[in-house]
Design goal:
The protein is α/β, with parallel strands linked by helices. It is built from eleven helices and eleven strands.
Length: 270
Amino acid sequence: MTVTSEQRFGEFVAVRRHAGQEHVAELVLDRPKAMNAVSTDMARSIAAACEALGADPGVRVTVLTSSHERAFCVGADLKERNSFTDAELVRQRPTARAAYTGVLELPMPTIAAVHGFALGGGFELALACDVIVADATAVVGLPEVSVGVIPGGGGTQLLPRRVGAARAAELVFTARRVEAAEARELGLVDEVVEAGRDREEALALGARMAANSPVGLRAAKKALRLGHGLDLRAGLEVEDAAWRSVAFSGDRAEGVAAFNEKRSPQWPGE
């Protein structure tokens, strides 16, 4: 897959675009010497990259990947954390949170491509995405209680939304690592592919999503996210508001016209 452009955000994060997939952005975790452990600088870069992606109307899907051969992300940089005073840890907390919420709040569909270790904050970055594609080497988990903390990048809230409260409690309280096959069975990941194919398959899935209306994709994601956890009546009101936001859009007009004219739509994106 040919990279047509790359924008760096600091030393450890890149956003790439590919030939033939101009509406899919690849958000690359690129700190291979540390297995993508999230340092303060890296967290700041993830947040900045997400801010740029969210403001780009040409991005219909974002795929979160890793440049390390054996790991997606091993979580927080504990070597850096070990050097912090209590006051420094408190000051660093908003920067760390901004990285995870940056991925979580991206307005377009997001896919995580996971291989090797995705632990702690690394798995939380994947959980912040809408869909997780893992390869057969993936090992996921939230082991934070084993080092005296708790999942702090959204894990205690995102995991039970995927697998239920009791299963999430078991996984968090035991701090155990889960290999790919069991992770798929439990719903920790959505698809397991052959070793080494997670990125390729995630980008292909992103391309299939990106063929659809960008207005529709963002509105559908908003409805899914805002409606989750509400009672049915309230959820249907969220859905109705999202429908109204697209019902009179240029994308809706083009989609209906293209269907009736038996041609591929040319989305105006508005």
